[in-house]
Amino acid sequence: MLIRLDDKFRQASDLHRKGLLESARLVCEEILADQAIHFDALNLLGLIAAQTRNPTLAATLLAQAIAVNPANAFTHCNLGTAQQELEQWDASLASYDRAIALKPDYAVAYSNRGNVLRRLGRLHEALAGFDQAIELQPNFVEAHVNRGNVLGELHHWLLALVSHDTALSLRPDFAEGHCNRGLALKALHRPGEALASFDKAIAIWPGHAEAHVNRGNVLRERHEFEAATAAYNRAIAIKQDYATAHVNRGIVSLLNGNFERGWADYEWRRRDPDSVHSREARRFSKPLWTGKELLVGKTILLHDEQGLGDTLQFCRYATLVSDQGATVIMGVQTPLRGLLSGLAGVTQVVAEGVALPDFDYHCPLMSLPLAFNTQLRTIPAPTGYLSANADMSAKWRARFSSNALPRIGLVWSGNAVHANDCHRSIPLVELLRSLPANFQYVSLQKDLRAGDELLLRNHPSLLHVADQLSDFSDTAALCQCLDLVIAVDTSVAHLNGALGNKTWVLLPFNPDWRWLLQRGDSPWYPTMKLYRQSRPGDWQEVLARVSSDLAQTFG
After folding, report:
1. Would the pTM count as exceeding 0.70?
2. How far apart are CA 105 and CA 146, in angstroms?
3. Is 390-554 in CATH node 3.40.50.2000?
């Protein structure tokens, strides 16, 4: 019988090598019918299950094979891959560790382990894993590519480019390598070369949907909007449920004021399995309100989804929801709870991490424009839909009473980890060079960058009070005492606009979609004025206009 089973397994292995997976599977099952603990048959069945996209079955079969023979490094590695597919990250790491313990020169296991560590956000450990894989196997193309991807996530883009170039020198026809190289070049502000890399990836693999999207993103940054939309359309034609392509197409539509198409496409952010918006949606067992369901006598949770500025901008819809007959509960980031507690139409404001009361429907704030079919002409834009605490404002006014100069609030940088921070933030030293005299400048900047503190000490005309601003209620009270706030695209710009105060916002050449294009005002905030870069990266021209307008406005 053993000879017959060995012959059968050789037959199964031969079928597997020829790609006849179903035939190989049937032969393995015949073997297991005779000998239920046959390691080779279990192992091969596990591989076939993995190859046919059944990671649950693959993990079960490979674990059974390991129970028969725990000394096979390759089986542990394959089990780790199946567990990785199932997002069983700790178990996957343990499987790769066992594979490496059995076979210390197992380059694939090091590389796969690096992929798991990258997924867990342990980027430096992941990088070490790829380095080890490459040391063991210098021509390991995938390890070079993955190393480049991690270096990119660490913002070491030049080193990332070197890794991608190495991978492509080993495999010039590797479409994924050209696509990743394009991403590094885009981050290095080399758009022409990035486009060439994406075009190369598409020439090798016309069905590479991600390359089409990345190509569209470069075209969008160059303000070639029709070409960008065409690239997103090609990606969607290849993969109709490609959420990222829909969202990016929506951003182009919103930028250009085509809200009807834009909101619908932007809603795809909630369908992206890797998106925080999708994970947020899975938190709630109650149905999503889409604008079609009757709300009379119902309770609805409106909840934050993205940044603080997004919450400040779209909380305005609470009154419209309340007007539908609903009891409105609002779930917001902790720093905004106090400020938004007085928002019209809201019955209760709950900070993140606090237990929620019962509700019938939920809706993320960023989905409310779609629910209300918001068009440019129907944007709800009440002046001063938020208000500051009068007593807190009075304290600030008393502090400024001895200074008769116009008071100008300043914010020059946003969230350092924001994907567009390098474009939308301004170095403080550059801002200070452009500020005219005879004003009382007040820093509303909460987080300081390296060197900012020294600059502030050397410029007493710029009063820094961030240590006295514990949350947005404090910031709102201070804003209420200022004659003007000048800010880059940050939450403070939204705050001051929502308070109905005079606000000047400094925008990069490629602004966020909410600021639209070309116009110097914002339909979202009646008291806001927009200053746009006419060339990428050129803040000097913007700041010169600001300085001139300050002198004219308060001269």
Report:
1. yes
2. 19
3. yes
